């Protein structure tokens, strides 16, 4: 379920262009994606982020059990955030930071 009130709001609140640490204030898993293309519409930045996160699956060999192990944590953490079985909500935000020269997408997931 997309959760604008909690995960989406926190994703928006943690984007600080001057201090890009992106740690959840409400204890959720965080995935981030940054692009230097300041002309890309925010919706496209988010689509690009999701695509890059799904591409992380190429970095790991998952067996039938598809366990979240050290290999997945190291090489496909953002992919795991997207597909983890017990996740029930997601919230995302995109912000352009022209002074710093980048646009960032941040999504937060429970689970």
UniProtKB/TrEMBL annotation:
<feature type="domain" description="SCP">
    <location>
        <begin position="18"/>
        <end position="109"/>
    </location>
</feature>
<dbReference type="InterPro" id="IPR035940">
    <property type="entry name" value="CAP_sf"/>
</dbReference>
<dbReference type="InterPro" id="IPR014044">
    <property type="entry name" value="CAP_dom"/>
</dbReference>
<dbReference type="Pfam" id="PF00188">
    <property type="entry name" value="CAP"/>
</dbReference>
<protein>
    <recommendedName>
        <fullName>SCP domain-containing protein</fullName>
    </recommendedName>
</protein>
């Amino acid at each position: 379920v997309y959760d604008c009130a909690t995960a989406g709001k926190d994703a928006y609140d943690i984007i600080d262009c001057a201090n890009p640490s992106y740690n959840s204030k409400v204890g959720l898993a965080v995935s981030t994606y940054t692009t230097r293309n300041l002309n890309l519409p925010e919706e496209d930045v988010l689509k690009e982020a999701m695509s890059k996160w799904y591409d992380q699956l190429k970095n790991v060999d998952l067996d039938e059990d598809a366990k979240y192990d050290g290999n997945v944590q190291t090489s496909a953490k953002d992919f795991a955030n997207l597909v983890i079985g017990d996740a029930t909500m997601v919230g995302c935000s995109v912000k352009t930071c022209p002074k710093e020269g980048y646009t960032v997408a941040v999504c937060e997931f429970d689970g």
